[in-house]
Amino acid sequence: MIRTFRNAFTRRAVLLGGVVVAMGVAGLTQVNAQDTTRLVIGTTADVVNFNPLVGNSRSDVWVTNLMYPRLMQMTAAGSKDPYVATDWGYSEDGKSAWLEIRNDLTWSDDTPFTADDIVFTITAIVTEKIGVTAGLVPAFVSAKAVSPTRVEFELSRPDSAFLSNIGFWMPIVPKHAFPEIGSVASFANDSNWVSAGPFQLTTVEVGQRYVLEASDNYPLVEAGRATIDEVEFRVFPDVNAQALALRAGDLDVIANALPAPIARTLQGQPGITVEKAPSLGWSHVLYNMKREQLANVLVRRALAHSVDYAAIRAIAMQGLAETTNSSVISPVLSYWADPTITEYTFDPAKAKELLTEAGYVDANGDGFFDDLDLSLLYEQSAADVANWAQIMKDSAAQSGIKISLVGLERNTYLARGREKDFDIYAGNWAVMEEPAAYLGLAYRTDGFINYASISDPQLEAYIDEAQAATTPEAVKVPVQAAAKLIHDQVYDNVLYYQTFQFAFNSDRWEGLVMQPSDLLSLVNPLSLASVKPKD
Amino acid sequence: MTNNTPEAVQPSAAAGQLAPADLTPARRTWRAFRANGLGMGSAIVILIMIAIAIAAPLLAQFPSGYGIDILMPPSPQHPFGTDDLGRDVLAQVIWGTRISMIIGFAASVLAIIIGVALGVLAAYARRLDGAISMLVDVCLALPVLPLMILVAALVGPSVTTLVLVIALFSWPEVTRIVRSQALSVTRLPYVDAARTIGGSHIWIMTRHLLPAVAPIIVVSVVLTASRAVLSEAGLSFLGLGDPESWSWGKILFNAQRSGALTVAWWCTLFPSLAILLLVVSSTLVSIAYNDARNPKTREN
Question: Which ranges carry the Solute-binding protein family domain (chain A) (predicted)?
Fold first, then answer.
């Protein structure tokens, strides 16, 4: 009896197993059938924050960019084109600003996208001091929706960069789906998303994938909606694994910028295209002005002359970097850049002269100046920075400057930077496209990212003048004067701006639109709304 | 009994053919160990690695700076190839041997000191046994790798940090093994006798218990050292290694970070082989030593 039962049970189990396997195969077939309209993008990190006003990792931005639109679109030269905003301007006295938006955009729950959403977003950001954007709009006083498509802003003083700053840096969130002002920064926004981008997040599998479905209404592209049905961000352990998956056909786009060795290998692969995009930011070292040695401009100049810039760009960056002429205004920003500024020379003899002039001696004859042991803080996992940090240490030794490397994991590194707990800080700024705005952020005494504790009244006066000017011509003069002062005083030592490389499967896909910087690159909303399968 | 008399031993000793029972335990163990080909081969590998670690400055220049030959495959000029900054991978492996061995040895010694002290104490002082055993159980139940990562990240990467972190998470296993071995010894009559004649606790523990667990300690030193090397490689591979020095894990981390992992096989093969050789050799030496000192396996 037992045996009969067992046999019957076994038969049923086998049958059930067969059905399950068949269903699985059917499921796989279904997924394969959908592959033509699902674009798979590789990323190396999970989305940490789904609130677009708070999230600042690359994965956060890539995913939330597809759901919460920005008002303007970045051009290759860093200027802004109309996008959701169609027109904008300032009053004659510069103390008020306005912008007009499209009238055909709706949120995914069919609520119209209106000027009220913009007023809500900027008021929340300023009231709760959320993220970098809050630091970019110091002149903001209030905003008013005078019609469903027009917003007017009151400013405490003229600010020439105000509109372009909110235009690019402020994703708009739905007033009706977010909590009241005061609780916006703490809002997790991790379910029941209401979005107005080309895609809407539907599936989150932490450590695995994030799937977004195309929205039915996205009038910012010609077709009125994205061409493809789904976008999947798939999480990989690192870029090496992404490259292998791309070669194997399991991945369509690598969102992360490629290290040079991998880009070189992928370039030769059939069906894979590697495209370049300029960075709108730069890589640099900051000298902590709170440290006694580094407060001396002679020491900072000696350090600037102790960097082998050519080796850094040729070896560490393998040629994928260009000089900014040691200026905080990169030549990519062609309108603003000052062609008279030249790069610091790598000149150990001159560096030694400067240090001797500053009163340093090598009494014990060990080849290093006494009392000048400096540490260089950098993020251990950033390959480029880690490589040039080593080169910087070695070239500084030629000038008699001892530098010890402090490579830390990302969060500890960021915390040490914010707490100004470093001698020399090595890092990158991803997007620095509006000089009048970022000079204030990085070099004002109370600047949001003034990690080096720079405090120079003359520099602040130039920044004030640039921000108060209402025409580009009037902004350019103080902006260039500020850049020259920063160069002469070595408040910041910019080493290069990078050329990023990104790869995608060009056998299967066409229509991707490259935008500058690794925040936008191939995975910007316009690109993913325009991409289509190749016939 | 007659075999133990000097007269009986002398003739065969002169001929170099002492019967196993005629030798001291140490010589019997050595003879058995020597007969084990795998054990001897592994010991030679470890000795070579120690020699490389000591002689590193004579064998290769410390890998620093940069070169123009980026990611070049093995060649007569660079037998192990070059990395993404044009540095010689052979020099990195040689200097990596030094740091990996130092960390392995130092962490192992520290873990052994803590582990043996607590293990012997737990076995001898019954009142402390419960507390120490519970502490060991709790420590063994902890997720070691995430905790190591956390501590190393918070304290900051350096060789000292790595040694301390690895040692602090390696001693519980040693304690457990030593305690169980020492427990069986504390019940033996000669320990009672030592107590009866008025021997102090410290004297009994150091003169009677410690020698009895010495073989276990030798095995533990080797195994803990190899595990420490693995832990160091793991932490360095995760970017928590000392940026100022070279270790095998750091070479692997550099290859992964720079994107050379799938492009330049030589950047990963040689440090991986070094780790594999050390870990396998340590394990084989431990097994061979354990077999050699155990009369049952020795006779077999």
Answer: 82-443
Determine the pLDDT at residue B5: 40
Which residues, including other chains, have CB under 8 Å from residue B171's CB and lie 6 or more apart?
B110, B111, B112, B114, B115, B118, B139
Reported as a pLDDT band with limits 50, 70 and 90, residue A189 is: very high
Separation of alpha carbons B237 and B31, rounded Å: 40
**Which of A318, A376, A390, A393 should one mutate to test binding to chain B, selecting the residue with the greatest count of B CBs within 10 A?**
A390
Residue B262, min C-alpha distance to chain A (Å): 6
Measured between alpha carbons, how far is A300 from A355 in angstroms, rounded to an integer? 9
Q: What is the pLDDT of residues A288-325, one digit of tens each?
A: 999 999 999 999 999 999 999 999 999 888 888 999 99
Closest CA to A398 of A377, A368, A357, A426: A368
Instruction: Give the separation between CA A87 and CA A109, rounded to whole angstroms.
Output: 26
Going from the C-alpha of B200 to that of each of A126, A493, B204, B261, the distances in angstroms are: 73, 68, 6, 59
Mean pLDDT score of chain A: 89
Ordered structural domains, chain A, with CATH: 35-50+197-271+506-533 (3.40.190.10), 69-169 (3.90.76.10), 282-498 (3.10.105.10)
Q: How far is Cα A33 from Cα B210, in angstroms, rounded to an integer?
A: 70
Can you tell me the distance from the alpha carbon of A33 to that of A37, in angstroms, rounded to the nearest whole number?
A: 9
The residues on A that touch B, with CB distances below 8 Å, are 238-240, 243-244, 258-262, 264-265, 311, 315-316, 318, 380-381, 383, 386-387, 389-391, 394, 404-409, 411-412
Domains of chain B: 27-299 (1.10.3720.10)
Chain A residues touching residue B85 (CB < 8 angstroms) = 315-316, 387, 390-391
Q: Classify B50 as helix, strand or coil.
A: helix
Alpha-carbon gap: A117 to the closest alpha carbon of chain B (Å): 41
Give CA separation, A295 vs A35, A298, A420, B38, in Å.
58, 9, 14, 62
